[in-house]
Amino acid sequence: MAYMSQEGYDKLVAELKHLESVERPKASAAIAEARDKGDLSENSEYDAAKEAQAHLEDKINKLKLAISEAKIVDTSRLSTDCVQILSKVEMTNMANNAKMTYTIVSESEANLREGKISIKTPIAQGLLNKKVGDEVEIKIPRGTIKLRIDKITVE
After folding, report:
1. Rounded to whole angstroms, how far apart are CA atoms 19 and 107?
2. In whole angstroms, what is the distance from residue 123 CA to residue 104 CA?
3. Bridge partners of residue 145, in order along the sequence
4. Which of 22, 35, 82, 130 shows the greatest Cβ crowding within 10 Å of its Cβ?
């Protein structure tokens, strides 16, 4: 089961709809076009089109699974007492006093450009259940980072 926001769930459903209604017919058309070019035993276009279709079907199946396992979190019922999924956490890196803000989201909603990190990342794992004012040391691939939690909000 994957916890996610309504927005994240809606994006998955929209992507699935697009893949099924637009990309799947394109893949079928590419296969038909390649098939029309003759001998299938030495037709690399046909092989490539079949492989692309297999990747597309795999992606569709993974999306369907993610949607079926999704549990939408009601953000109005979330607390800001401690860090949890869908918490927006403002923190300070104690080594250089740099301010950072991340929202902890499901793996499928993660987008670093938008400041959304997966709940499975080391930083998110280290922040879970911590409170404002807590200082945490988190092991990351480049060593250990010490963070102080300054503010917890839910959007």
Report:
1. 20
2. 9
3. 138
4. 130
> What ranges make up the beta strands (E) of the chain?
2-4, 70-72, 87-93, 99-105, 116-118, 135-140, 143-154
Give the pairing of strands 70-72 and 2-4.
parallel
For 25, other C-beta atoms within 10 Å of its C-beta total 10
Tokens of 112: 């670093």
Q: Are strands 116-118 and 2-4 parallel, antiparallel or unpaired?
A: unpaired
At 45-55, the pLDDT tens digits run 888 889 999 99
pTM over 0.85: no
pLDDT tens for residues 81-111? Answer: 999 999 999 999 999 999 999 999 988 889 9
